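<instruction>
Derive structure tokens from the sequence
<data>
Labelled lines for chain and fold:
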Amino acid sequence: MKNAGVSESFEQDGADARVSLFPDMLITAIGLDFECQAQANGYAFIAGVDEVGRGCLAGPVVAAACILDTTLPLPDGLDDSKKLTAAKRAGIAEELKQTAIAYAVGQIEADEIDRINILEATKNAMLAAIAALTPAADFLLIDALHLKRSPLPQRAIIKGDSISASIAAASILAKTYRDGLMAEYGSEYPGYGFAEHKGYAAASHYVALRKQGHCPIHRVSFRGVLPDDLSPSDKTSLFSDAASKPIKETT
């Protein structure tokens, strides 16, 4: 599968320093390189971890953890969820649910995001997903973040969803789960367009906020959610953009 070339110098990170993993690995395509190296060093259940929804104005931040069966072929087209169509993501997610050794989802709601901030909420969602895995993971591959509160050995990989199959799988599971939630919220809280933009900062979303005010799933600590958060020039620009641009799904 095609992918942007990425060079990763990859070493053991985390609480367990028994081995040194992944010295000078050059990863240029999505695959199981990291997972197989971890297995070669004695780890059995390597979980990829990723999140979706950090930049949204509404809805939870969602994380998924996924332990792939490395003896099976990868789902056709497996990649970073942002690079796939909704239909392709849905098909791969269903396949992963049937073939993965384990997967789990964690979510942190908008009110908790407002209370502790989005970065800490993201980490909590990841920790919740990891804790829910059965069997439990013994090594973590995480997209861009390090989880100091996890005792498991781990590695944060920049753009990990483009070069680690397990992280890509987690990104797809998190994205499809959250998109389903936001579609349900679209029916529960009509007029905001949640089913279309999934709670992201689309111009049409800001317009709905100005017309209707915020609802219970909005993150009131995020700029633009409350009426006084935007300057007059911001508001003019947003209304103009909304009138001229169609709504498109945001990844």
User: Anything to note?
Assistant: The chain has two domains: 6-183, 191-244. Residues 184 and 195 are 7 Å apart (CA to CA). The radius of gyration is 19 Å. The chain has eight helices and seven strands.
